[in-house]
Amino acid sequence: MTQSLTWNRAAIGIVAVLVAGASFSAGFIACLHAKTSTPATARAAQLQLPGDASAAVRSEIVATLQSFQDGYVRRDVSTLDTFMSRHFSKDGEVVLLGTECGASEWIRGVPAAKHFIQNDWQNWGDFRFDAEHAVINSTGNVAWVASLGSVRFNTSSRPVRFTAVLAQEDNRWIFRHLQFDWDDRDPRPEALLHPGTYLHVARSLMQ
What we know:
The structure is a single chain. By secondary structure, the protein is an alpha+beta fold. It folds into two domains: about 1-35 and about 195-205; about 40-185, Nuclear Transport Factor 2, Chain: A. The chain has helices at about 1-35, 40-45, 55-75, 80-85, 110-125, 195-205; strands at about 35, 95, 105-110, 125-130, 135-140, 140-150, 155-170, 170-180, 185. The strands form two sheets. Strands 2, 3, 4, 5, 6, 7 and 8 form a seven-stranded mixed beta sheet that branches. The chain has a two-stranded antiparallel ribbon with strand order 1-9. α1 crosses α6 (about 195-205). The longest helix has about 30 residues, at about 1-35. The radius of gyration is 23 Å and the shape is globular.
């Protein structure tokens, strides 16, 4: 009798652990796939004011942004040294902040930035941002930029914000600070209890 009771309690414990694990997994998956973001039209409106940079400065910086994005589109690691010399000072300071928290996403110095970008090219999703319509402000030989884009993965994409500070050096604009931020938010807690959330997640996973 005692042994039977012990086994029953063990079985109940195992079932409870499995249910808790399944509930956690479902909630975690829902957080990943049921994130919400600003509608595309509202996001586009954020880039309607181009900034105060002169036409000449804007043209130069847009060309630099397009060149930077081209590197992320091509992902050709064999060109990484050329890419770094084109967009960064050889000996100057640079700070690069990734989308995630933690020390691994807080990068300082050109060698560390190079390693970070190489890892992006080899392992991250397809990052694209709107270089042509970026908000560009400048004063003297310093400019600061804000734009919107997305990172496309195999079955989904996430909106992202891209900001940067550039300085003019040897008749070219180089990056001194870059930051990538996710432009979405987790679903509200009550949304995780709504069946429609999981239908949305199922459709996302099936696409």
